[in-house]
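Figure 3 (text version): structure tokens given as input.
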């Protein structure tokens, strides 16, 4: 028997793996654009990502002055018009994302690791410091008889003796997994773009490794497998059976 039930209609809208590594020593965006583009020939939409620093200076006897600066290009995002994958080559690592439709885990993991290895080779094989696994789920439930306790095992309760009902909430928490180097962050929030007859929610689950990781493929695969299990434990721990059975 599998540890977790299989959801043939899993409500995943995005899954990503963030490979964290410092590549600033070899970070040359224009050169990388030329080198990486042939690796993903279907991802012809390339977007530059930049961060901006804003400073507001106030000096006696002078008008306040606002200065905006940018350290330059921090990343290149590769998108495809025909495939659900998005790749981010970054100064601080690499992100592989898979949008809907999400495949099985084995396909997602193999693609992400292969793309990270290609990027790592292009930037001089940097040390892989850590990894982050993130899944974003969007779920909807009938509004006519909705109650938080029917679909969620963790939810706020109204103040006692007031007779109120919870109409909306945002719940965020971070958990440390005992005996491991992992932390799990969950964010459960309402989505307001659903049809009137539905109540929609977004459940964001992020698993972080809180210690350095060996860059060897065997260790990386083992870590990702452990992170996936923790993600599933969080998902099925937060949702009641009545909630997740809607996606079997």
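Below: residues designed for each position.
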């Amino acid at each position: 028997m599998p540890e977790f039930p299989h959801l043939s209609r899993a409500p995943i809208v995005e899954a990503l793996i963030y490979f964290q590594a410092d590549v600033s020593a070899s970070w040359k965006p224009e050169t990388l654009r030329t080198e990486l583009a042939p690796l993903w020939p279907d991802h012809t939409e390339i977007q530059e990502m930049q961060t901006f620093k804003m400073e507001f200076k106030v000096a006696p006897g002078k008008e306040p002055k606002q200065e905006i600066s940018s350290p330059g290009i921090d990343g290149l995002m590769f998108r495809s018009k025909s495939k659900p994958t998005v790749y981010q080559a970054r100064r601080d690592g690499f992100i592989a994302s898979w949008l809907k439709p999400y495949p099985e885990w084995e396909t997602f993991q193999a693609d992400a690791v292969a793309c990270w290895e290609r990027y790592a080779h292009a930037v001089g094989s940097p040390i892989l410091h850590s990894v982050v696994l993130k899944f974003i789920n969007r779920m909807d439930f009938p509004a006519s008889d909705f109650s938080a306790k029917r679909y969620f095992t963790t939810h706020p309760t109204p103040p006692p003796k007031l007779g109120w009902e919870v109409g909306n909430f945002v719940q965020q928490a971070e958990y440390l997994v005992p005996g491991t180097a992992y932390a799990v962050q969950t964010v459960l929030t309402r989505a307001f773009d659903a049809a009137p007859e539905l109540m929609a929610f977004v459940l964001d689950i992020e698993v972080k490794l809180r210690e350095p990781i060996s860059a060897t493929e065997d260790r990386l695969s083992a870590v990702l497998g452990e992170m996936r299990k923790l993600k599933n434990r969080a998902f099925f721990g937060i949702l009641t059976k009545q909630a997740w059975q809607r996606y079997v």
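The two ends are 16 Å apart (CA to CA).
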